[in-house]
Amino acid sequence: MKPGILGLAVVGALWLWGLGSFVTASGHFDVTLPRRRPTPDHVHNFSLWDLGPTLRASSFFGDYGSLHHPAFLVDGLATPDRVQKWASAERDRHPWVELLWREKHDLERVVIHHAGAVEDKGLTANRYTLWCLTDQGHGPSLEVVENQESVASHDLACAQARGLHIDFVPKDSHDIIRVFEVETWGK
Amino acid sequence: MTKRGVHIALAAIVLVGLVLRALAVRYEPAHHPDEFFQYLEPAWGRLTGAWIETWEWRSGVRSWVLPGYHGAWMAVLMRLGVREGSVIGRLLQAHWALLSMSLVWAGWRGGILLARRLGHNRSATEDPGDTTAAPIGWQGGLAAALLCAAFPLQVRFSIHTLSEQASILCMVCALVLTGELAGTTGREEQGKARKKALWMGLLLGLGVCLRIQHAVVPLVVALWLMVSRRWWLLLIATWASLLPVLVFGMVDWLTWGSFLSSYVAYVKFNLVEGGASIFGTLPWKWYADHFRERLPTALPFLGLLCLVGLRATWPFVLSAIGLTVLLSTQPHKEERFVMLFWPLVLIAAGAAAGAWLASRPPPAVFVEGTPLAPPRRLRTWLVRAVLLAGLAEVLVDGARHCQGNDFRGLDTGRYHAQAWAGRQADVTGLLDDLPLYTGGYLWFGRNFPQLQFQNDRIGNPLFNYVLAEHDSDIARDAKRAGFTEVFKEDNMVVLRRVSALNGP
What we know:
The complex is a heterodimer of chains A (187) and B (504). Chain A has 187 residues and is mainly beta. Helices cover 12% and strands 43% of the residues of chain A. Chain A has 1 helix and 11 strands; from the N terminus they run αβββββββββββ. Chain A has one helix at residues 3-24; strands spanning 29-32, 44-45, 54-57, 61-63, 66-68, 86-87, 96-114, 127-134, 137-144, 151-169, 178-186. In chain A, strands 1, 2, 3, 6, 7, 8, 9, 10 and 11 form a 9-stranded antiparallel sheet that branches. In chain A, strands 4-5 form a two-stranded antiparallel ribbon. The longest helix of chain A has 22 residues, at 3-24. By secondary structure, chain B is mainly alpha-helical. Chain B has 2 domains: 3-400, no CATH class; 412-497. Chain B has helices at 3-27, 34-37, 41-48, 55-59, 65-79, 85-99, 102-118, 138-150, 152-157, 163-182, 187-210, 216-227, 231-256, 261-272, 286-294, 299-308, 310-328, 341-358, 376-400, 412-422, 440-444, 473-480; strands at 430-432, 450-452, 465-469, 483-489, 492-497. In chain B, strands 2-1-3-5-4 form a 5-stranded mixed sheet, with helices on both faces. In chain B, a hairpin with a 2-residue loop joins strand 4 (483-489) and strand 5 (492-497). The longest helix of chain B has 26 residues, at 231-256. Chain B is globular and about 85 Å long. The A-B interface holds A 14-19, 21-23, 25-31, 33-34, 49-50, 57, 59-65, 67, 69, 71-72, 75-77, 80-81, 83-84, 89-91 and B 37, 43, 45-55, 58, 68, 71-76, 79, 425-426, 428-429, 435-436, 440, 446-452, 454, 456-457, 459-462, 504.
């Protein structure tokens, strides 16, 4: 085989491998915030940004003028402007978010600041499922089917939890999920 | 000149082209936000989950093919350990600059081909009596190759990750292949011609799928083959051109839900509904005026060469004029849309100049008792000197007037500053002055929030970096809120939060 053709074949094979990786990529978002302070001993919100949580999300609404980033879920600002919230992408039919912590915690309660806390109450998510994540996988869960609260507090006891996963169910094919803050309380 | 001499000259031209493109990769500013947000950012988003999603992507008026092409290279680079988005972006720009060297190949082949047709011995390719002699028409080949390698606007445009760039390479190479096909004779050559027709069809199909406005070129190609009575080759090329259409259509079907849906939406929005007009309209003669602004003194010279060589160069000239006329009918105009004009005209003009450079003075006949014949040799050399000076003027005039892009205000300093902020270990968010004038998440390289600066947003603890113009209101507001300047390039500064917030 001529060296030129061999070179082209190698480049082509590399590119095809890259294409395979690109096509099979999940497209999901994740980011780990740097830790800024030690974990306190008392009951606290252990998802707050400065405790260095990892955030994962199925997607986010990423218009450059109104970027609704998942990190806004843990910025500690429950009622900022309308932009600083997490919103799922328009074509995301199975939106979810996940908060992972640096240490294990005994989770007691989850507080979700829905869109209705700042915007139209009709934008609040009604159906979602909370999953506690442990080293063994999914722990206790809570299915919420008719939420009407703009700031919804859900008791979810889960010992030695590593994180929280929330699956949302959009109201229709055009609905996007909007959440301003997620707090996870416990020790 | 000998064959070896021509090859050395061609190698020197290739080297010049490479050096100029390397300089473009280093110094050329962004041409248009689209080169990031339409063709790189979606690919980056697919691989990292973080991207600025423009309205085109939410509305499904873009094909995933070009982002997929870039995304495959991004995946390879990331696997090789290159994680910094701005470095990946630069490497992809360098890759397009390298691919644009195919225009030098097209200039060489096209220039030889057309110069031969303009010369006295149209069918000859080499001097049969001398195996070391340069191919006939080499002057046209070298002239066109040099123009394609070094024309400043072409060099500058070569690094931009825009669909126009990819389509231009396809269209120009396809047109040169068509020229070679139109001149094929004999059975042996016809066997090779079928392969060339296949490649030519693939390139044309790909070029149109990448940039539908370039569809003028396939029409001229069809006309050229019909005039040359190459019916079989036309048929082969037509069938081959359908393969890219099929691939693009299937990608649309898989990503947007229906066959060629992004094209239907694109044509509907841009060409049928005139939706692009919301981005500004310009008078119909804007492109013609713009060509004159780019080459105020050398454009008439290029035009004259094209006109003189029209009997051979007409497919190139017709494609260039056809494209300009088509685009002039659209109210929304941008220079990048019409960039295909330049390589077509440069090859045509280079070939015509080469044909003239190759012409020799007829031998002087001395007749006893009559005065000496006028110095024809001197006249020929004068013509050659004028031609060479004219070609040099195309490059000089082009260099003197090649500044400025479609989108003003895309400062290199802003991109560098954004990438610098993304490299900081403690960054958790960036507020910037003009999000559309940045390189999106690819250039930032980190998955933290980026938003346009507003005074109330500075209270969000995540935003610990601010990107703004030096001495601007934003920079002053940030300093008042406890930020200090930590990076400066050109007129852009990055500020970092140094005093803690009072708590949320």
